[in-house]
Design brief:
This protein has 324 residues and is mainly alpha-helical. It has 13 helices and 2 strands, in the order αααααααααββαααα. It has a two-stranded antiparallel sheet with strand order 1-2.
Length: 324
């Protein structure tokens, strides 16, 4: 296991756990169970021991996925930052044949660790042959970015000529399968958070080599960022809202046209029974009105003092009584 030139790996794992927990908003008391399990029960007291864990060994620890991801990302960032310094401190007069041997030794060391994405990427950036390293990083960048942009789209990429890239893909969820007699890497379930972390760490490894990776697509949460903001909607959401607004506007115009023209259809057929009942009620109301008018007219004529011959006044009635 190669540890030369990485002095930060010998720091205590307890301090690393407390630091990562503080970034997640966890207190020291909340991190004590994980410190007890990792440091005291499993004797993983240094960062070097944590960096050497395989995927299966990480699973046996039984810690939360977010804590595991943050720890592995922090270890990978430390290894990637220390790798260029270790390469610069190497003797300039080394034999040319020593470079392939060192690369093979480093590759064997990382494969013994068991396929973690970040140690492989960090060791790849420290090896000679920067052109091949840059090509492998670009291939990984295109593949990861393609999955993040369209997680459900099935695409094929050739990455077999880069063993380090294959190990990185295996660590983020790809599995080896046979397809048409050819061995392929298939991503059955796209764990977006894991892909985002790998892309972020890949960008950190690519920076010392002069390879600039485009930023993450909008809408993905970056746990290493100090702030996050989103002032615009994705193009698909904006287009969906515009289409909905156009549809509602068209419906309103159609309803206004129906109200203005009456619908342009023939009136519904009349029900004879309903029409007859309505006519009878109307006639009853007219007869009642006529009767009320006649009664009112009779009362007015009776109290009218015009001296009509058809009516007796109170004086006439008194004279008739006297005569009788």
């Amino acid at each position: 296991m190669v540890t030369e030139g990485l002095p930060e790996l010998v720091l205590q794992a307890e301090a690393l756990l407390l630091e990562v927990g503080a970034e997640m908003g966890r207190t020291e008391e909340e991190m004590r169970p994980f410190i007890h399990k990792i440091v005291e029960q499993n004797w993983l007291e240094t960062r070097e021991s944590l960096a050497a864990l395989t995927n299966e060994q990480w699973k046996t620890l039984g810690i939360p996925l977010r804590l595991e991801t943050a720890l592995r990302a922090r270890l990978a960032a430390a290894a990637a930052a220390a790798a260029p310094a270790a390469a610069a401190a190497a003797p300039a007069a080394a034999a040319p044949a020593a470079a392939p041997a060192a690369a093979a030794a480093a590759e064997g060391s990382s494969s013994e660790r068991g396929g973690a994405a970040t140690p492989d990427a960090g060791v790849a950036s420290a090896r000679p042959g920067s052109r091949e390293r840059k090509e492998a990083i670009r291939v990984l960048q295109q593949l990861l970015l393609g999955v993040l942009l369209q997680p459900a789209a099935a695409k094929k990429r050739k990455v077999g000529r880069h063993p380090s890239a294959v190990r990185v893909l295996l660590s983020v969820g790809f599995v080896e399968e046979m397809n048409g007699g050819e061995q392929c890497l298939v991503l059955r379930a796209a764990y977006l958070q894991r892909l985002v972390l790998c892309y972020r760490l890949l960008a950190e490894v690519a920076a010392p080599l002069g390879v600039l990776l485009p930023p993450l697509p909008q809408g993905y949460f970056d746990p290493f960022s100090r702030f996050a903001c989103c002032s615009t909607l994705p193009p698909s959401a904006a287009e969906a809202r515009a289409a909905e607004a156009r549809e509602i506007e068209q419906q309103i115009k159609e309803r206004e046209k129906l109200l203005a023209t009456g619908g342009g259809a023939a009136p519904p057929p009349l029900d004879v029974q309903v029409y007859t009942l309505s006519e009878m009620r109307q006639r009853d109301r007219e007869q009642q009105q006529q009767q009320q008018q006649q009664q009112q007219q009779q009362q007015d004529d009776f109290h009218d003092g015009g001296g009509s011959a058809g009516y007796f006044t109170p004086a006439d009635i008194a004279r008739i009584k006297d005569t009788v």
